[in-house]
Amino acid sequence: MHTKTFPNTIAELAAGLRAGEFTSVELTQHYLDRIQQLDSQYNSFITVTPELALQQAAAADTRLAAGDAPLLCGIPIAHKDLFCTAGIKTSCGSKMLDNFVPPYSATIVENYQRDGAVMLGKLNMDEFAMGSSNENSFYGPAKNPWDTERVPGGSSGGSAAAVAAQLAVATTASDTGGSIRQPASLCGLTGIKPTYGRASRYGMVAFASSLDQAGVITRSAEDAAIMLNTLASYDPKDSTSIDREVPDYTTDLGDDLNGLKIGVPKEYFEAGLDADTEKAVRNALAEYEKLGAELVEITLPHTHLAVPAYYVIAPAEASANLSRFDGVRYGYRCEDPQDLMDLYTRSRAEGFGQEVKQRIMVGAYALSAGYYDAYYKKAQQVRRLIKKDFVDAFEKVDVIMGPTCPNPAFKLGEKTADPVAMYLEDIYTISTNLAGLPGMSIPAGFSSGLPVGLQITGNYFDEAHMLNIAHRFQQVTDWHKQMPAEVQS
Amino acid sequence: MSIEQKDIAKVATLARLAISTEEIDDTTDRINKVLNLVDQLQAADTDSIAPMAHPLDAVQRLRADSVTETNNRDGFQAIAPATEDGLYLVPKVID
Amino acid sequence: MSWETVIGLEVHVQLATQSKIFSGSSTAFGAEPNTQASAVDLAMPGTLPVPNEAAFKYAVMFGLAIDAEIGKESAFERKNYFYPDLPKGYQTTQLEKPIVGPGRVEIALDDGSTKDVRIHHAHLEEDAGKSLHEAFFGGESHGMSGIDLNRAGTPLIEVVTEPDMSNAAEAVAMAKKLHSIVTSLGICDGNMSQGSMRFDVNISVRRPGEPLGTRTETKNLNSFKFMEECIAREVQRQIDVIEDGGQVVQETRLYDGASKVSRSMRSKEEANDYRYFPCPDLLPVVIEDDYIEALRKTLPELPDARSTRFQSDYGLSAYDANLLSADATTASYFESAAQQSDAKLVANWMMGELAARLNAEEKEFADNPIAAEQLSALVARISDGTLSNKMARQVFDHLWTGESDVDAIIDKHGLKQVSDSGAIEALVDEVIANSPQQVDNYVKADEAKRPKMMGYFVGQIMKASKGQANPQQVNAVLAEKLAGLL
């Protein structure tokens, strides 16, 4: 058994590696041991890659010894299982891709390799990133380390559970309607989804292309800044990636917040919000006032249309994005297909889970002849109205804050019977994706002993400022340092 | 708008999803719940609002016309369900 | 009672880019199956399209060539349907905002008049792969088809005409004119047998004055001849159906050129609902005015302009000029051959011997084994009297079968015409001296009969010269000598 103890943020670990307090191989082994011992409780990993991790750790140690290694060099992280990893199974949480070993890697995976991060494995998720509880995974649900009878959130449930349970220092994730922020909130972590186009989507299995964005889940805003430095890049292989210089997100972390104008949308504090969640969020806002910020009540009048618009646009895009899973070139193929139609319909019916099939059908329906205008076109029009709400708000304020979720982590099975109940989990997060804005969740307190997240929504490409705002809060609070009792011991 | 079982069957065919008679009740019910939710859109005043397909007002970049890919057929077909002579096999295609 | 035919075309033109429309895979024809199918072409999860600049350039060039409006902001849609040769389960195409708007193409009709055919629009899209029947690979009978995705993602423009053609001849003239335009622009290799241009023909019939009849669409015709036959047969089929009291069914049909039979496509029986929507992986493509103007300035010469120039520069008839200017390869061949030699004679040889030979061997012009310089040299040797027409055809045969130097062929095969007047005079004298009886007959004969009698002497002289004496010179010298004997 390893006797060494390790700090748990990237910033501290990077310092320790450089000070020679421990090696990346030791650190990596420590995490691999924890995964082996503890992950049966959390089910946060779909695939663990110990040999590769130790190889990468050894290479990182060499690089560290040579000096001038990037900050992430030697830090054990893990990727959500929708980022393609060459030679390593990339399942997307689906039976459809249970046998899929891509011969290529996602651009963001390559970015982390370039900077020497060590990959521990691939993380559990709702199938094709469709879900808010991780219960739609072919590999079974990931569990919330704060209470394993509860969900860690979704779709990046494994990404959050792994960090919360200290099975990875930081993780990558993706956010189509809240899939980073909601699990970060439910697991007491920091999660950021950058502006649409800031991180490459190449090699990230698509759910809804105009909404999907890669991001990270970490223990602190500072760690998020370090992770984002590597994640963000312009990628010529992604037509929607934005050719814009990536700043060093750690530079401005310490800037003071005097005069910061925080918009507080009244629509985010209406019926349906858990009382203790509201209290925690209000307290956090008061903390910001102490830091010199000014609270400004704003209105985002089309907020109530965000979930309906999203559940047309996302399924419509998904219905086409998932057509490639047809049993012909890769992935699941049904036994003994009788004819072409049988090959298609059975491979897809057997390979996809219920929620995925349901969303494909909703999407196909919304696009079909006679319904396009009433559903798809209408949703695209509403999408513009929602974006305009934000554009108008950012004329008056620097940043928008409110709760990330209406309630803390719910019990496994609690919301599976009614899809709409599950969809409303993302009521505060979804509009950010529709507008393409950057969004973040940071720990802000507790409700019934479960973590509560504060959502920070920034203007386009204002991630550095958001991280600064989050970091200053974390310098004066310790919500982000809280750990589930089980994990602490 | 609500959807009936026969429409579900039609959409399932369009989406190439086999759907059993046991599943169709529950599926219809769940999809109707979703459609009830999205029907809230109908109340929105969207006159003269242009549909928005992309979150950012960016324009498409174009790639120079050069061949940058090399043959990796073996790599790709190693993960294929059925191939023969370099071709992907499917049940007979009828034009 | 008479019938009117209404025909519209949808033409798929493969653009002659090096790489595919959304990936860096080669578009070269004829590679081993799936060796030019990248992760993007195979629709591997997470892969994304990045459009090829040349595809847009070529599409804009086409738009300029047909006087069309250019879509300054064009966008891509997804057309959703499942088919094994369509890896993504949708085709990335353009619907609402095509790159090329309405335009027009002028066609020449057989009676010498011209007609405008309106172009509805032309849009960019990706080609699909190919399904191969089991008989074409392996050999084992397992009831499976094989999918080759090399062609998937090859850039196409689909040119959609208005239903402005009223018979097979007009439709074929339009098809040929489009072929001529795209090959002249250099945006398509025009190789029909490799599928570089494929025609879908929409046909309906009606009584004069009645509204449009129900149309059928016959897909994927890849030869002008098949197109002509197919239209004639489909028109007759529709008339027969109606005259027998039936109704034409709107359907998609396939025409088999070999058996000359068309049939309904089973795969298209199911009513399609393509669920088009804007492709979220691609952003609007903005074409700047400067870009369009720069392309307009450098647009290659179009067939109509070239035909006019051929008439004025080379003195060709309108008919010859139209034929030789239609296809860029043919036109440039003609021009290089005509540089050094008699242009009209070059034109005659190209449309005569060369065309006949290509036709006999069912070859495309591009497969012509005789280089322009060789044809030019051949014509020059005719002009300077070295070769008679008969000898020239022999030289042509040698060129066709692979010999490559006209003068070397003349030497090697002894095809040089004797034009030395001294040598010819000697031959004439010799034959006259050796034919006292015939000379006597000639002198005594009626004036009117003499020209016919000269044939004997000519024959003897040509025989003595082993066929190499210049016949014009022989005739002239012989006539002079015989006249001297009278």
Q: Output the strand order for the largest sheet of chain A.
A: 1-3-2-4-6-5-10-11-9-7-8
Overall average residue pLDDT of chain A? 97
Number of strands of chain C: 15
Percentage of residues assigned to helices of chain C: 25-40%
Percent in strands of chain C? 15-25%
Biggest β-sheet description of chain C:
8 strands, mixed
Rounded to the nearest angstrom, the distance between the terminal CA atoms of chain A is 16 Å
Radius of gyration of chain C: 30 Å
Give the SSE order of chain A as H and E letters.
Answer: HHEHEHEHEHEEHEHEHHHHEHHEEHH
Strand content of chain A: 5-15%
Structural class computed from helices and strand pairing of chain A: alpha/beta
The top level CATH class name of the domain at 10-258 in chain A: Alpha Beta
Spell out the CATH superfamily of the domain at 10-258 in chain A. Answer: Amidase signature (AS) domain
Determine the number of helices of chain A (DSSP H or I, runs of at least 4 residues). Answer: 16
How would you concisely characterize the structure shown here?
The complex is a heterotrimer of chains A (489), B (95) and C (486). By secondary structure, chain A is of the alpha/beta class. Helix content of chain A is 39%, strand content 13%.
Overview of the molecule:
The complex is a heterotrimer of chains A (489), B (95) and C (486). With 489 residues, chain A is α/β, with parallel strands linked by helices. Chain A has helices spanning 10-19, 24-42, 50-66, 107-114, 157-164, 181-186, 221-231, 275-290, 306-321, 340-351, 354-367, 373-396, 419-423, 430-435, 463-476, 485-488, and strands spanning 45-48, 76-80, 118-123, 170-175, 190-193, 213-218, 261-265, 294-298, 399-403, 439-447, 450-458. Chain A has a domain at 10-258: Amidase signature (AS) enzymes (Alpha-Beta Complex). Chain A contains 16 helices and 11 strands. An 11-stranded mixed sheet of chain A has the order 1-3-2-4-6-5-10-11-9-7-8, with helices on both faces. In chain A, helix 8 links the parallel strand 7 (261-265) and strand 8. By secondary structure, chain B is mainly α. Chain B has a domain at 5-43: Orthogonal Bundle (Histone, subunit A). Chain B is built from 3 helices and 2 strands; from the N terminus they run αααββ. In chain B, strand 1 and strand 2 form a beta hairpin. In chain C, the strands form 4 sheets. Chain C has an 8-stranded mixed sheet with strand order 5-6-9-1-10-11-12-13. A 3-stranded antiparallel sheet of chain C has the order 4-3-14, with no helix packed on it. A two-stranded antiparallel ribbon of chain C has the order 2-15. Chain C is of the alpha+beta class. The radius of gyration of chain C is 30 Å and the shape is elongated. Chain C is 40% helix and 17% strand. Chains in contact: A-B, A-C, B-C. The interface between A and B is large, with 79 and 54 residues.
